[in-house]
Amino acid sequence: MSTLSLSESMYEAIRAHGEETYPHECCGALLGRHGEDGWQVVDAIKAGNMRTDSAHNRYNIAPIELVRIQRSAREKGLEIAGFYHSHPDHPAQWSPTDFAEAHWLGCSYVITSVAKGKATVTNSFLLAGKTEEDKRFEQETIQVGNAPGEQSEDLEETTSIKEQR
Amino acid sequence: MTIYIPTPLRTYAGGKDAIEIGAATISEALNSLTNEYPELRKHLFTNEGKVRAFVNLYLNDEDVRYLPEKENSQVSGKDTLSIIPSIAGGCETVREA
Questions:
Q1: Which terminus of chain B is more solvent-facing, meaning fewer CB atoms within 10 Å of its CB: N or C?
Q2: pLDDT at A88 over 70
Q3: Nearest-CA distance B30 → chain A (Å)
Q4: Which of B58, B15, B14, B56 is nearest to B36 (CA)?
C-alpha cells in the first residue's frame, strides 16, 4: 500500500476547505515530490468548482486553472501529486463518477466526507494502472506529520501518524 | 515550441516534464512528439487518431478547441503547449453508507 504524506496543517486545511464550501463540494490540487512509498505533499492549492449547476454532488476544476497550477508547480520544482475534493453528506469513498473521470494515473485522489458541515473521514486513493483501460483506485495510507521545513512545537504531535480508513 | 507533459505521462516521455519540438502547427508538434515517444500516442489519441475527450490542450493560455484553426493553428518557438488531463468527479452516485 502506498502512502500519502502531508503536514498536519495541510491536512487540516484540506478538511477545512470542505467545511467552507459545504453543502457544495470543494476541490484542489496537491503539489509535491514522489518518495519511495508514495507522494510527499508540499503544497495544497484551492481550486474553484466549475460545476455550479450541481456543486453539491459534482466537481470540476477548470483546465486553465490546472495549466496555471502545473506552471506554478514547475516553477517550485514540484509535481502535481494529486487532487482533493469533498463529499458533502456522503462517505469518503470514491464514486463511479470519481472513477470514470479520474485520468491522472499514478496520482493521489483525496476525498473528505463532510457530514452536516463537519469534516469527518478523509481517505486517499492512488489511481493505479498504466492505461485508461486498466486503471483502478487503490486505497492509500495517509501519513500526517511534519512537512519538510515545517516547524512544530509539539514533538509528539508532529511525529504522529494518522491512518484514515 | 515547448510541450509540457503532465505527471502521469512523464513515464512515457523519457521522464521529462518539458520537451522542445520544432513544428509549424500544433498538429505537427503532436505528431513529432508521438513519433519521438510512441508510447504517448495511446494516452493522447483514440484509435481513430482524435485527441481523447479528457485530454485538454492549451496553447499558452488558450484552449486549442476554441482556436479558429484548432490543432492546425500556427505556432512559433516561444509558444508553449500544455497537455492537461481533466479533473472532475463527485459523490453523485455514491451509495449512502
A1: C
A2: yes
A3: 18
A4: B14
